[in-house]
Amino acid sequence: YEPELFPGLIYRMMQPKIVLLIFVSGKVVLTGAKVRREIHEAFERIYPILKGFRK
Length: 55
Description:
By secondary structure, the chain is α+β, with helices and mostly antiparallel strands. It has a single domain (8-51), classed as TATA-Binding Protein, CATH 3.30.310. 29% of the residues lie in helices and 29% in strands. The protein is built from one helix and three strands; from the N terminus they run βββα. The protein has a three-stranded antiparallel sheet, covered by helices on one side. It holds the Pfam family TBP. Keywords: DNA-binding, Transcription. This is TATA-box-binding protein. Belongs to the TBP family. GO terms for molecular function: DNA binding.
């Protein structure tokens, strides 16, 4: 995470193979999914981690 270069965290998930861009504002962008189910699976896996950092 280098906020001077890019204001978000780039998280590469291995299973499913999806890249998440996580911003300080709380916005999350998921890319690389082949089917909608992969998006749901990735978000279900990352949400508990993100929830722990809520302000």
